[in-house]
Design brief:
Oligomer: single chain
Order of helices and strands: HHHHHHHHEEHHHHHHHEEHHHHH
Length: about 575
């Protein structure tokens, strides 16, 4: 790793940490409906929106009503997204006259974008019209992100309130999250990205004459000479901004953030990378503010950083070590396969860690081309449950599930009833927290097992043995965790992967959200217990270390056998063959 690369990583971390407190404070003000500037300006519009939809924002909901409202809202969004894809040929803003999307693929994409997953089994520039990209995908980027944030706020209210069943109003939380947080940040970022070369237009695709004809592959296998190239256009900057800020990740183009129209310069790369992690990190401070103890929020952030920072440097080192097969041929300089020369190894590795630590899933390099250990880190970060920042809202409420488990374990160690923020953690909360933690690994392993023992699953891999297994494991890990990134050597556009993948995506989002809200409802009904000499502090270095250990042990014990069959054995085979 060069000094220049080290400076970039340190600068990224410093700027992120500097923004955590102001943005976290601002989001706390928004969700407490306290003055923060923008909500004063938008009060009339917000009130008009509630009247239009016949919503009473003051009417609070219990956890069942909050859950049912969220599920109906998300299901309606899924149906609308599916319909727009199927009917896009007959709808406007389709200059390339793309036909309707295949039913299986439309189901997979609708499930993906409604759940903040943004798994893409399609090629955006050759499949979706401008209207579909805007009114279906970009809109869902806002709605799904706001949903995750609303669920987190409901859980926080469950921790703060006592002897009540009310957790707030889902509609008000979602509207405020979009209107005062996501929309202003996305608008600002889109303007900056447009100024740096990210395109934003409604032009038809442009034919450009080449200076020299080139050989291109024409399906199925024939080579032809081409003297011109068709450049895709579209409203990219607006989707790119919310794709990153909302930890959505779905790109306008198939190459995602490696495409020069989505991410043209090192400066846009830095801004997009920063926006990926910004809101999830700041929500830790928001959590501290809302529970009236900012040390609790800082403790969670520090626990995340303790895992996040070493994995950044591990991945960078693995990619700089390169491929021993190339080294024997005299090719040095690290592993540049699948990476953009605009960004290099350090920025590609940093992005890979950030996008899988969060539930973003966007890529600026081909993860399938990483070294075995370089690809292991993004995969394992998802195996941790994406609690190292995670998706906006969803990452932090998943981390709080692990906090509850940690508090329970610590209580058993000292022989006391476990408590967190003045609430007793009893068998019901432990059952729900265990369910929320176990849903992901169970379904990742089950779906992976189905794929690797069936011809329908293995026929989509383009690589044999360990790497092919890793491609399948990575795919279902990404889908169940609502991440969306992929080892692109896997052909996921088949009915087998689109149908099973769509089911995995829905399970990963909602089967975790249900126990989270159930815990929120249970905690809200409890009394606040004053701290005593026997109360375990949950903001101290000791608790932070214990929490980190629980996170790592759960991830290691659950997925180590699968990782041993994939990237670990691939690394041993590679270096065993060429590294001596």
């Amino acid at each position: 790793m060069t000094h220049h690369g080290l400076i970039q990583v340190i600068l990224f971390l410093i700027i992120t940490l500097l923004l955590v407190k102001p943005l976290g404070w601002y989001m706390a003000q928004v969700y407490e409906n306290q003055p923060c500037g923008l909500n004063r300006l938008g009060t009339r519009f917000e009130a008009w929106l509630y009247r239009l939809c016949q919503i009473d924002p003051q009417k609070e909901m219990n956890w069942q009503t909050y859950l049912i409202t969220m599920l109906i809202f998300n299901f309606c969004g899924l149906l609308l997204l599916y319909a727009i894809q199927r009917l896009q040929f007959y709808l406007p803003l389709n200059p390339q006259k793309f036909s309707g999307v295949d039913p299986y693929l439309a189901f997979n994409t609708a499930s993906s974008f409604a759940t903040n997953t943004n798994w893409q089994a399609y090629t955006g520039e050759s499949t979706l019209s401008y209207l579909t990209q805007m009114s279906a995908l970009t809109v869902q980027n806002f709605l799904s992100a706001a949903t995750g944030m609303s669920l987190l706020i409901a859980l926080i209210r469950g921790l703060v309130r006592h002897e009540t069943t009310e957790l707030g109003n889902f509609w008000a939380d979602t509207v405020r999250g979009i209107l005062y947080i996501l929309l202003p940040l996305a608008f600002l970022l889109a303007i900056i990205l447009s100024s740096q070369g990210v395109i934003q237009n409604f032009k038809p695709y442009q034919k450009i004459d080449l200076l020299k004809s080139v050989a291109v592959t024409q399906p199925p296998t024939s080579l032809v000479r081409a003297a011109e190239v068709l450049l895709p256009m579209g409203p990219v900057a607006s989707q790119e901004a919310i794709k990153q800020l909302g930890t959505n990740g779905g790109g306008f183009f198939n190459a995602n953030s490696a495409h020069p129209f989505e991410n043209p310069t090192p400066f846009t790369n830095f801004l997009e990378l920063l926006s990926i992690i910004l809101i999830p990190a700041a929500l830790c401070y928001t959590f501290g503010k809302l529970v009236k103890n900012t040390r609790q929020g800082w403790a969670l952030l520090i626990a995340m950083l303790i895992i996040f920072i070493p994995l950044i440097f591990f991945t960078i080192h693995a990619e700089h070590a390169g491929n021993p097969a190339f080294t024997q041929l005299g090719i040095t300089g690290g592993n540049m396969e699948g990476k953009e020369t605009r960004f290099g190894i350090t920025n590609s590795a940093l992005w890979a860690v950030a996008t899988t630590a969060t539930a973003n899933g966007s890529v600026n390099a081909m993860h399938d081309s990483f070294t075995p250990l370089g690809g292991l880190v993004p995969l394992w970060l998802m195996h941790l449950g994406e609690v190292i920042f995670g998706g906006v809202g969803s990452g932090l409420y998943a981390m709080i599930m692990l906090v509850i488990i940690t508090v329970f374990v610590a209580g058993l160690m000292v022989g006391r009833t476990p408590e967190y923020l003045g609430k007793k953690i009893e068998p019901y909360e432990m059952k729900m927290a265990s369910l929320a933690v176990l849903v992901m690994p169970i379904f990742v392993l089950v779906f992976t097992a189905i794929a690797v023992v069936t011809t329908l699953g293995t026929s989509s891999t383009n690589n044999p043995a360990a790497h092919g297994f890793t491609e399948i494991l990575y795919a279902y890990t990404s889908m169940v965790n609502n991440n969306g990134s992929a080892f692109a050597g896997l052909n996921a556009a088949t009915p087998f992967y689109t149908i099973l993948g769509g089911i995995a995506i829905l399970i990963g989002r909602y089967w975790i959200a249900i126990p989270v809200l159930a815990i929120a409802g249970s905690l809200a009904r409890k009394k606040i217990i004053p701290n005593s000499l026997g109360t375990l502090p949950t903001h101290t270095p000791l608790f932070i270390i214990l929490l980190v250990c629980v996170v790592i042990v759960l991830g290691a014990l659950t997925f180590f056998p699968a990782l041993a069959l994939g990237p670990i054995v691939e690394h041993l085979l590679l270096w065993g063959q060429y590294g001596h």
